[in-house]
């Protein structure tokens, strides 16, 4: 049985500006340090950008299956954890990185920080949900949606795509969470699909329609349900536990944009092995466990996310991924977060 331990929380010494935030210091590379500075061959160090409450029960379960002691660092969000790996460089103790967004995985891949994965791991996941270079795999997926209040809006009156949200009829009636990673990933996809100038034009027109900003997707969904706004841009999986809590009579419902529209983005959480890991075998087993039926069922039923392996069905009534019409864009291209945040700052959204 493997022991699961949490690493002490590290504080960030620098504030978030744009791009990936660096936590910790790259100065702690004294070669005279003791063996506590490196993970032993029997210890697997996981840097997790996913919330501890969400994923720790699953990691505890996986700890029974991996022949190593697992240490999990939850000291920052996905971007901060990825930045810490980049800053630590070859001195990083991390063996595995878990991120909630394909952009951070793409950034590590582009920097040459992730190791190629074995074919048997890659084969578990559809090609569109893994890194183009074979250095990371999705562990779950989530769809962008438009939540709406069915007491205020008829389903047939909702737009087929994000351009329809620019109509003056929606003035002051759209909620969004501009500082949230999922919204910023959507804007990155918009930039990738339409180009920088077209993305800027859309954002400026969107802001001109007086959307209402929220600190997160949870408060946004509450506002839609309460009628504070008629609609809100969010991820699908926030809705399912909300309805579980509030009942099927809750007026908030989900609307999916048309195939190929930037608003139909399907993003992923995923994982990769840090190239400097000295415990590759255990790291590979850890990824295999994340893609096992048990783990994929956990994501499907506990978080209402989409499983990414064949044969796992959620207890929630999720529309099939292959019916959502997401683009075939390489999700690794969502790595240009710094440019996205610069654009959002330029237009006054953050």
How would you describe this protein?
- The protein has 350 residues and is of the alpha/beta class.
- Helices cover 32% and strands 15% of the residues.
- It has 11 helices and 10 strands.
- Strands 1, 2, 3, 4, 5, 6, 7, 8, 9 and 10 form a 10-stranded mixed β-sheet that branches.
- The longest helix is centred in the middle third of the chain and has 14 residues.
- The N terminus is likely disordered.
Write the layout of secondary structure elements.
Elements: E1 4-6, E2 43-48, H1 52-62, E3 69-73, H2 78-88, E4 96-99, H3 102-110, H4 119-122, E5 136-149, E6 174-176, H5 181-194, H6 196-208, E7 212-213, H7 217-226, E8 231-235, H8 239-246, E9 252-255, E10 266-273, H9 280-290, H10 293-302, H11 337-346
Parallel strand pairs: 1-3, 2-3, 2-4, 6-7, 6-8
Antiparallel strand pairs: 4-10, 5-8, 5-9, 5-10
Helix pairs in contact: 2-3, 5-6, 5-11
